[in-house]
């Protein structure tokens, strides 16, 4: 049995959901009527669980996601920015070099990202820095 096409209200719900991200508001704006908020919540959730509605939302969202990717910095770009800031390679809108406070802040941001990532890989909680010291003394007897 072939899938039935979406109704006009279902299509409108999908469009409004992509626009707002709010199922209840999208339900109302699509023209569905309900007497109370609980019914709106249940019915809008039912729409979101409909495979055809989900597929349409995904289809409508894809171009938006691709467009957004063009405007969102990657992790690599963020690290490059902080590195340039820390090294004093970035000037402000007046052509002045970064202050020491800005350069220190950039270094802290780099450290947060690298130390925290290393900690996650080793199972150490965020905000904890592990320092390993070798207390053996080399008296020339090695």
Describe the protein in words.
There is one protein chain. With 142 residues, the protein is mainly alpha-helical. The protein folds into 2 domains: 64 residues, Arc Repressor Mutant, subunit A (Orthogonal Bundle); 48 residues, no CATH class. It is built from 6 helices and no strands. Helix 1 packs across helix 2, helix 1 runs parallel beside helix 4 and helix 5 packs across helix 6. The protein is elongated.
Short précis:
The protein is mostly helical and 142 residues long.
SSE blueprint:
Elements lengths: L7 H13 L2 H7 L7 H13 L1 H21 L3 H12 L13 H23 L20
Defining key terms:
2 domains; mainly alpha; Arc Repressor Mutant, subunit A; 142 residues; single chain
- Report the structural category: mainly alpha
Q: Classify the beta-strand content into a percent band.
A: under 5%
CATH class of the largest domain: Mainly Alpha
The structural domain count equals 2
N- to C-terminal separation?
A: 81 Å
SSE topology string: HHHHHH
By CATH, the topology of the largest domain is: Arc Repressor Mutant, subunit A
Main sheet summary = none
- Number of H/I helices: 6
- Shape descriptor: elongated
Helix content: 55-70%
